[in-house]
């Protein structure tokens, strides 16, 4: 600070400026507001000009960065990969676009902040707090006016008008409720059944491997393996494949029959091969984080954990009920088949869901 | 004794002696002949099994039992096959450091030759998946075929593997401290073997439900995700919204708060110096 500006400080002109309240006698006295201190740019024209140049410089840098953004967009090849120290191998185009746009926006913000702090007016404006209620006169006047208005309208006397008004006000929100119909149509029975509903004891449906699109024999499923299956006849080229597979998807595991704790579940399987719905009963994520030693299946969304050795009982997490299990057996050629649908709807709970 | 000697002139005595002699000869033959045959066999395979047995006795038998039959500390290795040994020992998972939720990948302490000998010994205990050769797991070097394999492998990966290993193979958490490891930098052979054998809590994907060619396609996909550069710079683990959101909240908003504090704390007021 080579430039001497001490003669510009207010103290030099007016020593009595500010609120020099005597607080010596009374420690709880209102100290008042602190003295206004000017900024350097307020009292030193050269500092103000310097600040002005700094602000403009930042805006100019922002302009240059924007030009750089457009230039790099036009000139850098999208496939070019460069090495930049902490980031590793990155796309040169992405890096250039991000840096230039970041600098352009930052400089506008920094320039604006610098401008406001150094050059915009520096008045201190105390806003004192008062009670927000109106004074008694005003309140009495309003109450008086309300009573007069009520008497003149005859609201209390003409009951028919009053009651019909209440009625119409009560009914108006119904139109909003009716609009909720647009959320429909209701799913009807669609949630109750899956694609396996076409399987019948007389006309069993084969389980098709999702990887190979081939039906499977029991000996193909080895202990400790995990296989995904779909019903025979459902092809990926089908228009509604995604809607169908969202309900039909199966995960097949094979557990040593003596390790299966739930006898009902063992009976639904075939020689230890169990077919469970792949759809979590919480909000319907596909679950298949299967641990072959513990026989736990875990849902990646909210960590619901099912014990597949114990009828897919929920052992952790928000899922409300066990995974539905599909009853499977083999046909005369030895292929795994289902003879019916799941006993209960797959996927998340809903009000009409039968227990 | 007196009873026996009293009948030694019985007409059937000769028959009894003959039968006893035949039984003794047959029994002795049965007892010694196979051992002799094994001694005579000096092929490379049986030498490897022999060396493997010695290595096994030193490094593995305290948990898996002297004959790989398993103990309370380690599972039986009968029927796991050479592929499982090659995977577990070749990635340093075995020998295990300590019991726990999961045996982690560590520094490999056996050479490939020693691993092969151990694998040969374990394979001799019972039939199981065989160590694959590079024709089975190495993706095609032809760029067009390779691109095709990567595309198919990506689809298979998303159906069979992504649920645990994340959509780009970065791994993820399982229950009770277990986790699916990252597939970054894992040998193609070990990826193939893991699918074949289902190590630890990973389910297996045998050739019957996932043919060899599909496993090769998955390896091709994992290779391509490993080699792929990251256009955006910091990957934050490529885990998706969790790390990205956390980064945004902590570093993005944190920086903004620090800037705001700095702006407000540094007064521009002139001070008489």
From TrEMBL, chain A:
One of its GO terms (cellular component) is plasma membrane. It comes from the Bacteria. The keyword Glycoprotein does not apply. It is a multi-pass membrane protein. The cytochrome bc1 complex is composed of a cytochrome b (QcrB), the Rieske iron-sulfur protein (QcrA) and a diheme cytochrome c (QcrC) subunit. Residues 1-17 have a biased composition (Basic and acidic residues). It comes from Kitasatospora setae (strain ATCC 33774 / DSM 43861 / JCM 3304 / KCC A-0304 / NBRC 14216 / KM-6054). Keywords: 2Fe-2S, Cell membrane, Disulfide bond, Electron transport, Iron, Iron-sulfur, Membrane, Metal-binding, Oxidoreductase, Respiratory chain, Transmembrane, Transmembrane helix, Transport. Pfam families: QcrA_N, Rieske. PROSITE patterns: RIESKE. It is found in: Cell membrane. Residues 1-38 are annotated as: Disordered. Residues 242-337 form the Rieske domain. Iron-sulfur subunit of the cytochrome bc1 complex, an essential component of the respiratory electron transport chain required for ATP synthesis. The bc1 complex catalyzes the oxidation of menaquinol and the reduction of cytochrome c in the respiratory chain. The bc1 complex operates through a Q-cycle mechanism that couples electron transfer to generation of the proton gradient that drives ATP synthesis. Its main location: membrane. This is Cytochrome bc1 complex Rieske iron-sulfur subunit. The chain crosses the membrane at residues 55-76, 96-116, 160-180.
TrEMBL record, chain B:
Keywords: Cell membrane, Electron transport, Heme, Iron, Membrane, Metal-binding, Repeat, Respiratory chain, Signal, Translocase, Transmembrane, Transmembrane helix, Transport. The keyword Transferase does not apply. Residues 47-126, 148-226 form the Cytochrome c domain. One of its GO terms (molecular function) is heme binding. It is an enzyme of class 7 (translocase). Heme c 2 binds at residues 161, 164-165. The cytochrome bc1 complex is composed of a cytochrome b (QcrB), the Rieske iron-sulfur protein (QcrA) and a diheme cytochrome c (QcrC) subunit. This is Cytochrome bc1 complex cytochrome c subunit. It comes from Kitasatospora setae (strain ATCC 33774 / DSM 43861 / JCM 3304 / KCC A-0304 / NBRC 14216 / KM-6054) (Streptomyces setae).
């Amino acid at each position: 600070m080579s430039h001497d500006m001490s003669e510009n400080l207010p103290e030099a002109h007016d020593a009595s400026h500010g609120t020099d309240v005597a607080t010596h006698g009374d420690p709880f006295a209102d100290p008042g507001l602190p003295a206004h201190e000017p900024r350097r740019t307020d009292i030193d024209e050269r500092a103000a000009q310097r600040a002005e140049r700094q602000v403009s410089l930042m805006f100019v840098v922002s302009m240059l960065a924007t030009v750089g953004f457009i230039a790099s967009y036009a000139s850098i090849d999208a496939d070019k990969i460069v090495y930049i120290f902490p980031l590793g191998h990155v796309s040169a185009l992405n890096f250039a676009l991000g840096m230039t746009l970041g600098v352009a926006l930052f400089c506008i913000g920094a320039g604006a902040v610098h401008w406001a702090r150094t050059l915009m007016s520096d008045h201190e404006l105390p806003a004192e707090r008062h009670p927000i209620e109106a004074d008694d006169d005003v309140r009495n006047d309003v109450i008086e006016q309300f009573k007069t208005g009520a008497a003149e309208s005859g609201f209390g006397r003409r009951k028919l008008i009053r009651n019909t008004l209440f009625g119409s006000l009560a009914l108006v929100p119904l139109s909003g409720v009716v609009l909720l119909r647009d959320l429909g149509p209701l799913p009807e029975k669609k949630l109750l059944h899956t694609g396996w509903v076409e399987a019948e004891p007389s006309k069993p449906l084969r389980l098709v491997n999702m990887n190979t699109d081939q039906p499977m024999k029991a000996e193909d499923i080895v202990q400790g393996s995990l296989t995904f299956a779909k019903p025979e006849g459902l092809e990926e080229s089908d228009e509604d494949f995604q809607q169908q597979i969202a309900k039909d998807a199966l995960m097949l595991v094979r557990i040593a029959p003596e390790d299966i704790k739930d006898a009902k579940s063992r009976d639904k399987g075939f020689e230890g091969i169990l077919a469970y719905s792949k759809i979590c009963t919480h909000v319907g994520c596909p679950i298949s984080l299967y641990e072959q030693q513990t026989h736990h299946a875990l849902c990646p969304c909210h960590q619901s954990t099912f014990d597949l050795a114990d009828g897919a009982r929920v052992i952790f997490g928000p899922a409300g009920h066990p995974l539905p299990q599909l009853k499977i057996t083999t046909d005369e050629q030895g292929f795994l088949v289902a003879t019916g649908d799941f006993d209960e709807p797959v996927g998340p709970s809903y009000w009409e869901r039968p227990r | 004794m007196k009873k026996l000697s009293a009948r030694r002139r019985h007409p059937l005595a000769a028959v009894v002696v003959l039968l006893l002699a035949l039984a003794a000869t047959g029994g002795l033959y049965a007892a010694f002949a196979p051992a002799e045959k094994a001694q005579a066999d000096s092929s490379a395979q049986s030498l490897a099994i022999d060396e493997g047995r010695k290595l096994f006795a030193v490094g593995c038998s305290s948990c898996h039992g002297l004959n790989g039959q398993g103990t309370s500390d380690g599972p039986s290795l009968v029927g796991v096959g050479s592929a499982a040994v090659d995977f577990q020992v070749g990635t340093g998972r075995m020998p295990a450091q300590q019991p726990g939720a999961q045996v982690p990948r560590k520094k490999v302490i056996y050479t490939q030759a020693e691993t092969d000998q151990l694998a040969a010994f374990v394979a001799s205990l019972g039939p199981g998946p065989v160590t694959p050769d590079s024709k089975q797991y190495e993706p095609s070097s032809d760029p067009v075929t390779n691109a095709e394999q990567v595309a198919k492998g990506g689809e298979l990966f998303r159906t069979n593997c992504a649920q645990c290993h994340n959509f780009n193979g970065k791994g993820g958490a399982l229950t009770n401290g277990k986790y699916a490891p990252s597939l970054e930098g894992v040998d193609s052979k070990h990826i193939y073997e893991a699918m074949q054998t289902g190590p630890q809590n990973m389910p297996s994907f045998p050739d019957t439900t996932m043919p060899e060619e599909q496993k090769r396609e998955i390896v091709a996909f994992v290779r391509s995700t490993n080699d792929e550069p990251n256009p955006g710079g910091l990957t934050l683990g490529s885990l998706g919204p969790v790390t990205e959101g956390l980064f945004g909240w902590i570093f993005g908003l944190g920086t903004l708060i620090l800037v705001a504090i700095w702006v407000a704390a540094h007064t521009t007021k002139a001070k008489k110096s």
